[in-house]
Amino acid sequence: MILLPENVSRILNVLSGAGFEAWAVGGCVRDAILGRVPGDWDITTNARPEEVKALFRRTVDTGIQHGTVTVMLGKEGYEVTTYRQDGDYSDHRHPDGVVFTTSLAEDLKRRDFTINAMAYHPDAGLVDLFGGQEDLKNRIIRCVGDPRERFDEDALRIMRALRFSAQLGFHLEDRTRAAIREFTPRLQLISKERIRVELMKLLVSPNPGRLMDMAECGITREIFPLWDTMLATPQSSAFHLYSVGVHTMKVIENVPPEPVLRLAALLHDCGKPACRTTDGGGRDHFYGHAPKGAKIAGEFLREFRFDNKTITDVVKLILHHDDHYPATRENVRREMNRVGEELFPSYLKLVLADNLSKSGYTLGDFMPLYKRICSLHEDIKAAGDAITLKDLAVKGSDLIAAGMPPGPRMGEILDRMLDDVLADPSHNNKEYLLGKYLG
Ligand code: ATP
Ligand code: MG
Fold first, then answer.
1. Deepest in the core among 139, 220, 322, 367, taking most CB within 10 A?
2. Residues 112-149, buried b or exposed e (16+ Cβ, 10 A)?
């Protein structure tokens, strides 16, 4: 028994009442059986798009060429898609054409995994033609039909397999895994955007450790070879017990599942392979790895078309993740100025996770320092100490009023004033600053 939201029942009833077959299908059925809250409810029907549109007052042609109409009930939209079977996949990405069918079985057969290929209607019950319930019970990701054919048709399914395994904590069935191994080179045909979407779902899931499985299957070698390089980069030093990759994996698991933090964790040490030197005593050093990593990470994020804010934030976190300074209030203000106030809490989380994921050798020194920095950060916020130019008591307009011509010199003066105020917040008043810097 699956409890359908009222709107979904209504849509099924309207379609059934008009003599059509209609089912909740795919991810929502899977999630409902698992007791997870489905993100969206999809409906499949033998009604043609025009027939669906005729039955509902408000619809949107979201994917009409694929047979999908979005039915609007209040503010909510529900995708209603006509039963289809896919044509050939000559580009290994998209079906050449969409063929409508009158058979629910055909529609379910084109779906990727057994757990995603079940349909439900309150009167007819569950339609499970490929052992989806059994695989849910055994926590297995298994292709519908021959896995080699399915990955050959559409290599994005390789990313989806690993992403579902991470989201649900499931394992790959053996033949599915073997076919993934064989078809990973096909990932080169998939757009970076679509790969990014799946990679991010995996990264913010409860099991980001499936990245190791991705490497094991040969997926990262195709889409993110830097990860294989990190896994192969040893760190022989008193500070570390693990390779760069294994340490990185721990940092990812030790930060909250937010996109920027998980990405920053993923890439924080990506500069290390290029910066590794080994001294006469056999110890490894990674001088300059933070700026190097920030540069490499920026290139990676742009290649995968991340939005600018994400790129800026992740790059900043990487650039500063290894900053060292004595825990004084002035130093914390200056670090807040460099990192940015908004990003500072994320920076603190990354720094903590990074240090908790090392050998423990330096943890005794780190923890008191870290706690002091956190408490100074709280004090600074509570006191409202100036951190950036917008907090400065003097504005550009004050300099102009005092007779200064606009130009680069104005910016320099404001920067010097801010530097003064970062050292001593009591200097943040107009008379003092104007007197000292314009007098
Ligand atoms: P999510 O919870 O992430 O939305 P989902 O299973 O609903 O997971 P969607 O991408 O929303 O995934 O797709 C809905 C359904 O369409 C899937 O459950 C599956 O049946 C089918 N599907 C989606 N993408 C593919 C694909 N590349 N190949 C085959 N079937 C697919
Ligand atoms: Mg979905």
1. 220
2. bbbbbbbbbbeeeebbbebbbbebbeeebbbbbbebbe
